[in-house]
Automatic annotation (TrEMBL):
Belongs to the bacterial solute-binding protein 2 family. The lineage of its organism: Bacteria, Pseudomonadati, Pseudomonadota, Betaproteobacteria, Burkholderiales. Its main location: other. This is ABC transporter substrate-binding protein. CDD domains: PBP1_galactofuranose_YtfQ-like. Gene3D superfamilies: 3.40.50.2300. PANTHER family: D-ALLOSE-BINDING PERIPLASMIC PROTEIN-RELATED, GALACTOFURANOSE-BINDING PROTEIN YTFQ. Keywords: Signal. Residues 17-277 form the Periplasmic binding protein domain. It holds the Pfam family Peripla_BP_4. It is found in: Cell envelope.
């Protein structure tokens, strides 16, 4: 019978089960890449599942990780609600759960050990503050159309809330249309086409909850014979490469950073957990705002 030196057994690889939402945006692709490369660099065995933006697939993946007795489970919840049952199963199996990117809405916070990701409320506020400053000398109404992220997701809920919290200070700001584009370019274009058909030249501003929907909307605006970032001021969130390319082309006014590069932080947290350390309940990613004026200078420094 083969025997293993204690050192080999002692170095048994940590196994992390990760349930990813899907591949709906440039942001998500960069996020998955960050997690995969950081796991490899950390020597952590990664079981990675792509849920194609369906909550039931994430729940199935988490159940499979429990059955495989992984050491740690991490996931980015596609929506905030509906997680109690499967998180209770993970807790019963004594497998710690780390939330990355998006939060869950559960009564019992002991069902997850830590949440690392951006402050979406603040991202919405930053978008609102940029617009209020940009429009400070405008006297008449500022008519805004809004492309929301995935219905029920933490970023969609909080980016809307944060933005409205800031613009409500002046009644001239009016959100005249608001609909989900599900964080994708295709849907962003489709919904912007409908906005343009309904409101046309009345639209002064587009607030998109992510760059992919903004990029899709830019195509719709151009096909309607209007100049994006001139006839319609465009604000979006993520700060992915496509947004910098759009700003350099003069078609997007500003993007609020939301970093997908959570991989190294996640792997460190997994290692700390396995070493018996307690993790902070909330780890916030530090971020910035990039207006088109700085895009060309900043672009070479971008990592996603
Ligand atoms: C935000 C993330 C969002 C991005 C979108 O942290 O959950 O999902 O803003 C992505 O681009 O699809």
């Amino acid at each position: 019978m083969a025997t293993f030196p204690l050192s080999a057994l002692a170095q048994k690889k940590i196994v992390l089960g990760f349930s990813q939402i899907g591949a709906e945006s440039e942001w998500r692709t960069a996020n998955s890449e960050s997690i995969k490369s950081a796991a490899a660099a950390a020597g952590i065995e990664l079981k990675f599942s792509d849920a194609q933006q369906k909550q039931e697939n994430q729940i199935k993946a988490i159940r499979s990780f429990i059955a495989q007795k992984v050491d740690v489970i991490a996931f980015s919840p596609v929506v905030e609600s509906g997680w109690e049952p499967v998180l209770r199963e993970a807790k019963a199996a004594k497998i710690p759960v780390i939330l990355t990117d998006r939060a869950v809405n559960v009564k019992d916070d002991s069902l997850w050990v830590s949440f690392m990701g951006s402050d979406f409320l603040e991202e919405g506020r930053r978008a609102g503050r940029w617009l209020v400053d940009k429009m400070k000398d405008v006297k008449g109404d500022v008519n805004i159309v809004e492309l929301q992220g995935t219905v029920g997701s933490a970023p969609a809920i909080d980016r809307k809330k944060g933005f409205e919290e800031v613009i409500k200070a002046d009644a001239k700001f009016k959100i005249i249309r608001s609909q989900t584009g599900d964080f994708t370019r295709a849907k962003g274009k489709e919904v912007m086409e409908a906005f343009l058909k309904a409101e046309g030249k009345k639209i002064n501003v587009l607030y998109a909850h992510n760059d992919d929907m903004a990029i899709g909307a830019i195509q719709a605006i151009e096909e309607a014979g209007l100049k994006p970032a001139k006839d319609i001021t465009i604000i979006s969130i993520d700060a992915v490469k496509g947004a910098f390319e759009a700003m350099i082309a003069g078609k997007l006014n500003v993007t609020v950073e939301c970093s997908p590069l959570l991989g190294p932080q996640l792997m460190q947290a997994v290692k700390d957990l396995k070493a018996g350390k307690t993790l902070p309940k909330r780890i916030v990613t530090e971020e910035s705002v990039f207006p088109m004026e700085v895009a060309a200078k900043e672009f070479p420094n971008r990592k996603y």
